[in-house]
Write a structure and sequence with these properties.
Chains A, B: This is TetR family transcriptional regulator. Chains A, B: Keywords: DNA-binding. Chains A, B: Residues 14-74 form the HTH tetR-type domain. Chains A, B: InterPro entries: Homeodomain-like_sf, HTH-type_TetR-like_transc_reg, HTH_TetR, Tet_transcr_reg_TetR-rel_C_sf, Tscrpt_reg_YcdC_C. Two copies of one chain form a homodimer. Chain A is mainly alpha-helical. Chain A has two domains: 11-67, Orthogonal Bundle (Arc Repressor Mutant, subunit A); 75-205, Tetracycline Repressor, domain 2 (Orthogonal Bundle), CATH 1.10.357.10. Helix content of chain A is 69%, strand content 0%. In chain A, helix 1 runs antiparallel to helix 2 (38-45) and helix 5 (87-104) packs parallel to helix 8 (156-172). At the A-B interface, helix 1, helix 6, helix 7, helix 8 and helix 9 of A face helix 1, helix 6, helix 7, helix 8 and helix 9 of B. Chain B binds a DNA duplex through helix 1 and helix 3.
Amino acid sequence: MTVISATQENPSRERAEATILAAAEEVFAQHGYRGASLQAIADRAGLPKANILYYMGSKQALYVRLLNRMMSRWNAVLEDITPESDPHTVLSDFIRTKMVLGQRYPKGSKLFAAEILAGAPFLNEYLAGELREWVASRAAIMREWSAQGKMDAVDPRWLIFLIWSSTQHYTEYSAQVSGILGRDALTEDDLESISVFLEHVILKGCGVSVPAPKPSANAPQVKK
Amino acid sequence: MTVISATQENPSRERAEATILAAAEEVFAQHGYRGASLQAIADRAGLPKANILYYMGSKQALYVRLLNRMMSRWNAVLEDITPESDPHTVLSDFIRTKMVLGQRYPKGSKLFAAEILAGAPFLNEYLAGELREWVASRAAIMREWSAQGKMDAVDPRWLIFLIWSSTQHYTEYSAQVSGILGRDALTEDDLESISVFLEHVILKGCGVSVPAPKPSANAPQVKK
DNA sequence: AGCCATACTGACCGATCGGTCAACACAATC
DNA sequence: GATTGTGTTGACCGATCGGTCAGTATGGCT
């Protein structure tokens, strides 16, 4: 049985699909689902339009495949968080991870943003299901942090939204940011400066103090 | 000379144009420039497609008119700010004004967001011109605040971006926010809660203390 | 050589795109 | 009643949309 059944490892197929996905991500990110055309995607991929449909089936299938790929990239974020964790470490990591993710996958982030702007027609159930659970569980832990005096008694949902919005801004609004700064793109120094700023303001703003040098027990650190 | 020359006060014309602008703002906000169709706008306005073009000339003219209308709404923001101003009052007003603007013009805000996502093809010169000057002048004043010890020595550009992003998030990502919160829309209480949270975190995070009851002189308030 | 499954694509489909235009409706003026 | 300017719209234009399909090219197997 030397036959490769289907959808299995095929180097040529995988290369073609990767090319298409990259081209499509770019076009969808710029113009949204309705505004993107298969012809534009095909041109950017250097393939005939019919080839796109041969591999992807339909415009919608290609689009949801890109959405799913992007969603799976968030999965590692804020994964290991417990009531005993140190808020400073966790939130600091959260901010930096989000900044890095946005820079690593700018097209995917913009694609996601366009989908939300359009009213999330393809992500409604994901938002009201998986993601909602994700937020609720993290929020519950953060509330325990507040009860333990590790941070101010802020609404953790607003805190999560704050970190999302402030980090994503630099990828989704990159055209605005670079237009205002007068650069073509953000430099490494810019990104580091922004990360330091966000850590400073958000952590200080939530009353999170620097972690105790001994991360052994959950020694309460009184603040305010 | 009873003849109304043109483009002057004409109640019927103004009513028609207002209807068209409202419908177009909605469609453009949802699908972006490319994704929006004149037919969809016409349907939402309850007018034949040819009528849209009679009043607006072209799809592009209609779009830039909406953009300009939205830009003019930002003008009042952070207008009266001086090195002698109290940071707490000014930044607090800034945050609340931005929140209110986003709630008052949700369609316009999303339209703007879609334009930036697409790479700001129609707003490039505005971003690199007017808006850039706007940010630079405000940033200079904030740097003076820092020098006076009124707030931490943070980069004021990142601070402005932080306030923009964190407030706009609730209008442009309303689909995500309400999906996660399990509501159709944000309530008045939500908005007040969010405003209080953002004021708390951002002001505290920047080391801005509550204003002195006497707003007469710039008495330095040591913090840190 | 013959065969067959997969890869690939030019040509075409009906629908819709932004935009034009001629025809018509209607009120005000002479 | 005839004229004129503005408002209004159905019908139509070439271009492009997402998608289908028949046909060709290709490489591994017997």
